[in-house]
Amino acid sequence: MIKSRLLPEAFICFLMAMLFAGTALAQTRTVTGKVTDNKSSPVVGATVQVKGGAGVSTNEAGEFRINLSSAADSLIFSHVEFETRAVAVRNRSTFNISLQPKDMGLDAVVVVGYGTQKRRDVTGAIGSVKGDAIRNMPVTDVAAALQGRVAGVEVVKSSGEPGAPTQITIRGVASLSQPQPLYIVDGVRQDGNNINMADVASFDVLKDASAASIYGAAAAGGVIIVTTKKGTGAKPTVNFNARYGVTTPRMMELLRRDEFIRFRKLINDPVYGPQSQTDTLPDTDWAGALFDNGTEENYNLSISGSSPNTNYFVSGIYNNQKGVFRKNSSGMYGFRLNTDIRVTDNIKIGEQLYVWQRNTTPPTGVSINPPFRTIPTMGIYGNSPENPWAKSPPGFAGPNLVAQIETAHRQFTQANFQGNAYAEIKLPFYLTFKTTLGYTYYNEELNYYQEAYNAGPVSVNATSLAKNNASTRSIFTNYVLSFDHAFGEHSINALAGYEQISGITNGAQIGATSVGGTSYAFLLTSDSRINLANGGYDDNALIKSMFGRVSYDFAKKYFATFSIRRDGNFQKFGPNNRYGVFPAGSVGWRISDEPFMKQLLPQANLLKLRGSYGVLGNSNIPSYVFLSTFDLVSAQNFAPGVVPVLNYTQQNIPNPNIKWESMYEANIGLDAEFMNGKLYASVDWYDKTTKDMLYNLPIPTSAGMPVSIFITNIGSVRNRGIEFSAGYRSNIGEFSYNVGVTGAFNKNKVLNLDNINNNAILAGDNNYGSPSFGIWTGQQLASTKAGAPFGQFWGYKVIGMYQSDDEWKNHPQQEGKQAKKGDLIFADIDDNKKIDEKDRTVIGSPYPDFVYGITLNLAYKGFDIQALFSGVAGVDIFNGVAPYAMSPFADGNTTNKVFGASMLDGDYLTSQPRIGEKTQTGFIQDPNHNYTWANSYFVENGSYLKLKQLQIGYNLPANILQKVKMKNARLYVMGYNLFCLTKYNGIDPELGGAVTTRGIDVPYRYPNSRIYSLGLDITF
């Protein structure tokens, strides 16, 4: 009876369920689409979710299909590497969505010493750059790639020579022995040059002492961690990138024949007097003979992929640069292999291998830019079949630069192998043990062959050959035990490790003269001499280190980190000072997670206050300065078959008390993120003081020592500054944009130079090839003294120009001289009523007050634009090229600026001082030392803003890619070093230099060039 009543009820329920199901099905529809990144590449594994409901994932083509009910109002598109995006459904049936990468988010993962952290949890000062931002830049060194992208990092590319190094400084120059940053590539110390930028996944720059102290004595110049790519995706991904470009130099134009002769006649040069036959003289464009457009080409191929237990990344690169200077080029090729294998759930192993070789033909000679040691009335080639080179004409004792270059054959080869393997084991009690073994081999070889030639006063009478070789081998071992555990609202991450680096160096130099043959293959003749100039072998390089770090956070709001490292350097310091200890600590407070801040500033996704203090060390000095060492200076075989006679000389004066240089740094920072990550900013204040600076103290020859090297600890220096970075990113429909700005103010001050009685350190020159030949010969151009910054310009201060011949009576004069109309007025600094050496004073500063960069990224549908600007402000340049370009130097050439000199061709004044005065029989050149004394007339404003890179690309649409079976294809055009806004009158205001001699522009600087490139980037 009961069952009979249940059957009709069950049937009714079934009919109602079917009715509602039918209604629901009638209101459900299917939509499809594709998710791509800002370069129109498919985003694999993106989640497409109905708001508040179910979701699906995109396939390898970035495509998806999902069912929507009529109640669905929006779809949420998300991926761990991209910004989440919500899109209204409306009546759309197809969705083509572009996601923006999380390149600058404060929630990204950053690499720190021996580990990783989320940026939200970092308590040190760290700047990060994603590899995609620099992959197509025409550079192969890390420093150049970072220019303008990280606050507090100043990068200077002052030479356009192919393969030339880039100068990088993090938070100001902090030592007389300023070290370069420490480069860590995939966890192992390596060189920052000759890296394939397409291999790089990310850069992380550890700027303050707390972030870098885990690397101890090697981190005084900062730390740059380079992480290379790993394989992703179940199917192999093949990427090919090709780029070809033309480089164009910016040159200073010299006088051609007619202008040159006109000028020489104005200064009564008897060689070009009225009786001389000038119409038949050559008209040689020496700048055109020495410089021409160059090329830059780069080809990169990579294959990557992964499985559940393995990932791999393999790449190869070929880069070749033909320099703008005659017979100058540099080519590099390299190969990389990265693999990771998960052996079991608890064991993982892997390796990273990188092999590269660079072959360079260096520029020959020093007369690079511009070639003032030429004259247009001298030809290049002669008429004699026995001697192809033109000789110097009467009145000119300079070289035939083309003959110098074409008869000199130089080849510089560098080869490097870098490899490391690791094993990682997960242990009980939240422990992990990781050991790494690394090996590096580097070899460089310079081969030089000089032909004999005859070009007049500057000739080579005998052939010669030289071969220099140096090699380094190092072994790196590392053992790290780490602990990572969270319980309740507490999280603890700790590690302890031991590290050892051992090395062997070997080198030799050998030369031969008067050899037979026409190249590196040679025969000894009866006149041949062989000389072993130098040789060296050292197998004692050893650094032993122990380190530890503990990080703690409570409720993800309060953070604290403490680290310590003990380094022992057995090669740089004696037994009494071999070890150094370098502690650091930092704290952080995520204020945005406090209830009061959520009410006060609800738009803030992140506000984090940071503070830190730490100690770093520096050992950037030659080895064994605590011992008395000797150099082999020659090994001469005076007769065939006779054992060579070896000659040695003392290399240095020992200093058994030499010790570590120590840097103490405090840092306070604030990180912020608003509007769901659209607006982001970070600001840091730092104060770092270096004590016991390492310095190569000059020893006067009067001391009777055969050497001039004595390295000791002197004085201290302080750098204080504020650095910031900020940006805004968003999209308007299919148009997306990202604008970023970085800036840094820094003030440098030498506090004392105690061990040299606070005497000023004078340095710097403006010679032309040798110390005894130049327009400011024997004058030191920079001063470093207590109470002032490093390397301030040193010279005579100009306070005006004489407007008449009688005005000299109103000003002190040089002894035995009388200034005239058009001469510079020098200040009498010591007020002794005469102008002499004691009146030299500070006349400028080469270190900028402000360094900044601007990045701009725009994308619309398949098009994208990337721009990078970099600049400096509040900096001076000592224009050492100007006196060569505005006055006659020796018997060489100059520029048309010389015609602007006061009183040259009439009785009138200009903005330029006079170059001399005519006499009845000749010309007295520069009697007042307007051009031949280093003075403030030649100190100029060196501030600039450069467009370093502009790249415009187009990504082929998805329908075309599907037809050709590609994942992505991008065509682009790029310009590098496109323009410069500056008041500087020289060729290029981007100038570096040594610590005490920075910012001095010299006439033999290799010019930076513009590069115009076409590129193709395709992925299968």
From TrEMBL:
Instruction: Please give the InterPro entries that the UniProt record associates with this protein.
Output: Beta-barrel_TonB_sf, CarboxyPept-like_regulatory, Plug_dom, Plug_dom_sf, TonB-dep_OMP_SusC/RagA, TonB-dep_OMP_SusC/RagA_CS, TonB-dep_rcpt-like
How does the protein's chain sit in the membrane according to the entry?
Answer: Multi-pass membrane protein
Its chief place of residence is: membrane
Its annotated compartments are: Cell outer membrane
Domain TonB-dependent receptor plug, first and last residues per copy:
119-223
Question: Known Pfam families for this protein?
Answer: CarbopepD_reg_2, Plug
Q: Does this UniProt record's set of keywords contain Membrane?
A: yes
Gene Ontology CC terms, in alphabetical order: cell outer membrane
Q: List keywords of the entry alphabetically.
A: Cell outer membrane, Membrane, Signal, Transmembrane, Transmembrane beta strand, Transport
**For this UniProt entry, which residues form the secretion signal?**
1-26
Q: State whether keyword tRNA processing applies.
A: no
Of which family is this protein a member?
Answer: Belongs to the TonB-dependent receptor family.
> Could you tell me what this protein is called?
TonB-linked SusC/RagA family outer membrane protein
